[in-house]
Structures are given as C-alpha cells and as structure tokens.
Design brief:
With 201 residues, the protein is of the alpha/beta class. It has nine helices and five strands. It starts with a strand and ends with a helix.
Length: 201
C-alpha cells in the first residue's frame, strides 16, 4: 500500500488537509493522536516519561501535565531528544500496525516532525503543507493561548519552510481559502490513486 507522509510546520494547516482526505474516504493515521493515547495513565510510555523527567510532570490524578513537559523539552534539545527516544518507536510501531489492517490503495501518515525526526523511511512520498510564516502565526494565536516567545520556541525546533520543501514530493499551498485548499487535495487524491495502482512507487 502506498503511504503518504503528510507534514508541515505548526499552523500550516495539516489538520484541515487531513480532514479533507478523510472526507474523501482516505484513511488518515495521525501521529499526534497516537502520541496522546500513548501517554494516558496506565500506559508504559507515561511511566517511562515520569521516570526520566520526574514525578512533577504528572498531575494529582496521574495524568501527564503537558504544559510542564513542554517547558522542559523546549528548554534544552537534549531533553527533547530523550522524550522522542521514548515516544517515536511506540508511535512508529502503532502507525505501521494500523496501516497493516487497512485495505485501501493508499493512506496518509500525518507526522508533524516527519523530516526533523528522520522518519521519511516510513513513507513512500512526502506531502508538505506550506503557508507563509505570518499566516501560520495568526492561525496559532487564534487556536492556542501561546505567547510570541512560545511560538518562536516551536518554530526554532522545526525546519525552515524552504528546508522542509526541499524534501517534498508534493506540496499544498495553504495560503488562501478552504475552497482552494479542497481543490488541491482532490487533485492529489486523484494522483495518489493513480500512483498506488501503477506499482511504480
């Protein structure tokens, strides 16, 4: 089965594009959703995280305090790498398992840090969702209570737009309205269906 790796910087519109693919009947396996499931109370990953980063990253009822953990991993690259070493293998295995259960011509792996985490080998093609930085910042502020400093920290750990585009097999430009965004996804859906049946990928 053809696997498309959907990625893009924060605020680029990955969720919007994923939603359109789902509406078109294409399975979307989202790394963020799997990550949230992996750190629920009782899961081995949460126990590992608390051992590495300390019990203070847990709330009173034993759930992950995401705010505290974010502050820790954005403070130093080493801490971020420690967290990735715990979560990435779990996420990778669950995504591949879910894909193995599908009976479709192709599916989407939505992975925000697909390139940064060196996970390109998981997919057959890389689809980058691109948008101007100023527009991305506007979108982030509309949906999340993040300060400019916090947004800058997120941008700092992600590739620049151009560096990300250098890895792209396909690009969606999300700098207009939903109608134009949907039209691009429909075109790609048609192309991916053709590629999946061509046996050339």
């Amino acid at each position: 089965m053809l696997i498309i790796g959907l990625t893009g910087g924060i605020g680029s519109g990955k969720s919007a594009v994923s939603k359109i693919f789902i509406e078109l009947g294409i399975p979307v396996i989202d790394a963020d959703i799997i990550s949230r499931q992996a750190v629920k109370p009782g899961q081995p990953a949460l126990q590992q995280i608390s051992q590495v980063f300390g019990e203070e990253i847990l709330t009173a009822n034993g759930e992950l305090n995401r705010g505290k953990l974010k502050n820790i991993i954005f403070a130093t690259a080493a801490k971020r790498k420690q967290l990735e070493a715990i979560l990435h293998p779990i996420i990778k295995n669950k995504m591949l398992h879910q894909a193995s259960l599908l009976d479709t011509a192709y599916c989407i792996f939505t992975i925000p840090l697909l390139i940064e985490a060196g996970q390109i080998d998981l997919v057959d093609r890389v689809l980058v969702i691109d948008a101007p930085d100023t527009l991305r910042r506007q979108r982030i502020k509309q949906r999340d209570p993040l300060s400019d400093q916090q947004i800058n920290e997120v941008f700092a750990v992600q590739l620049s737009a151009q560096a990300r585009l250098d890895y792209a097999d396909d690009i969606i430009h999300n700098d207009s309205d939903l109608t134009q965004l949907r039209a691009q996804v429909i075109d790609l859906n048609r192309r991916y269906a053709e590629i999946a049946t061509s046996e050339k990928y």
